Amino acid sequence: MPIKIPQHLPAKEILEKENIFIMDDSRAAQQDIRPLNILILNLMPEKEKTERQLLRLLGNTPLQVNITFLKTATYDSKNTSQYHLEEFYLTFAEVKEKKYDGMIITGAPIELMEFEEVHYWNELKEILDWTERNVTSALHICWGAQAALYHHFGINKYTLPRKCSGVFSHRVLDHTEKLLRGFDDEFFAPHSRNTDISEETLESHPELKLLASSEEAGALIISSRDSRKIMITGHLEYEATTLAEEYMRDKEKGIGIEMPENYFPQDDPEKNPTNRWRSHAHLFFSNWLNYYVYQETPYEWD
Predict the structure, then answer these.
(1) Is 13 a domain residue?
(2) Is 192 annotated as a binding residue?
(3) How many beta carbons lie within 10 A of that of residue 8, not counting itself?
(4) From the CB of residue 279, how many other CB atoms can be counted at a distance below 10 Å?
(5) Could you list the residue range(s) of the whole structural domain that residue 92 is in?
(6) Is 279 annotated as a binding residue?
């Protein structure tokens, strides 16, 4: 949250140059505070697990955050009970007349399919277009990020020779970006995907900014120039054991998959992995909620 200081305090200029978030008396006097309304389109198979992961991070704020869960109407989840979906989820038809301060579109384990082959692709395109008029800031995760880059910016994914799975070191490319405020120069983040986006294509696109990247895992955090669309190709929301659960699940299915990189201690799946990205996950979601949602959303939507 911002530091409120007198408008003409000499330290103000220095703090602003250091990228410290401050607010002077005149702006503070004009601020009204209300709960933030966040819509989550949960495309992951194990929806209850994803709910827990995201809510843990969205709850780390002094602001009241109202959450609405959204499901697709054109595809029924096979891994979540119908009772849970009917009790806690709405469809797009039930929310499209409303305005939301922020929205999260999750990943989905379908990245090897062409976008147009996805059962709910037409529905998702309608939702993505709707966010431009009805959502202050939209955060897209993993396949959701690839879908947004394809639909909004015409950038397609490509298949990797082998799955990108593990915990990788990333570097911050723009220290002035508010989304990365407080980040270390290097930080860890998990990835779990079979496809990727060309960094060269991202960097050359006039409407996009590449904010964080890894030599091993490629682009991680991308933003539109107006900061209303955030794309993250990894999974900062993952718990310490999520990659292990995915690895064991795929092994049991007989899928030829390699062990997640830089993850198990001494590359021993019998040893419990440690979470090396938790602090940056909290920081990322806190920055998004504060700078891109709370500070930008109107008090009353017109």
Answers:
(1) no
(2) yes
(3) 9
(4) 14
(5) 34-294
(6) no
* Total domain count, the chain: 1
Pairing between strand 218-224 and 208-214?
Answer: antiparallel
Output the six-digit token pair for 33: 């505070």
User: Considering all CA atoms of the chain, what is the largest pairwise distance in Å, rounded to the nearest integer?
Assistant: 66
Q: Residue 184, Cβ neighbours under 10 Å: how many?
A: 13
- Helix and strand numbers (H, E) in the chain are 10, 12
Positions of E strands within 132-204: 135-141, 158-172, 186-196
The average confidence (pLDDT) of the chain is 91
Specify the residue for token string 């723009």: 174
* Tokens encoding 215: 């030599």
Residue 103 and residue 40 in contact, taking contact as beta carbons nearer than 8 Å: yes
Active site amino acids: 142, 235, 237
Residue 88's identity, in one-letter code, is: F
β-bridge partners, 70: 41, 90
**One-letter amino acid for residue 197 of the chain:** I
Q: Which pair of tokens denotes residue 256? A: 């030829």
Question: Taking the CA atoms of the chain, what radius of gyration do you get in angstroms?
Answer: 20
SS3 label, residue 16: helix
71 annotated ligand-binding residue:
no
In a domain, 159, yes or no: yes
Question: What is the domain-level CATH number for residue 164?
Answer: 3.40.50.880
Q: Per the domain annotation, does 8 fall within a domain?
A: no
Residue type, 47: K
Report pLDDT for 4: 53
The neighbouring-strand residues paired with 99 are none
- Going by pLDDT thresholds of 50, 70 and 90, the confidence category of residue 14 is low
What sections of 43-154 are H helices per DSSP? Answer: 47-58, 82-88, 92-95, 121-134, 143-153
Q: Give me the pLDDT at residue 32, please.
A: 64
* Residue that wins the pLDDT comparison between 58 and 15: 58
Residue 186 domain-assigned (yes or no): yes
Query: Taking the model in full, what pTM does it have?
Result: 0.89
Amino acid residing at 154? G
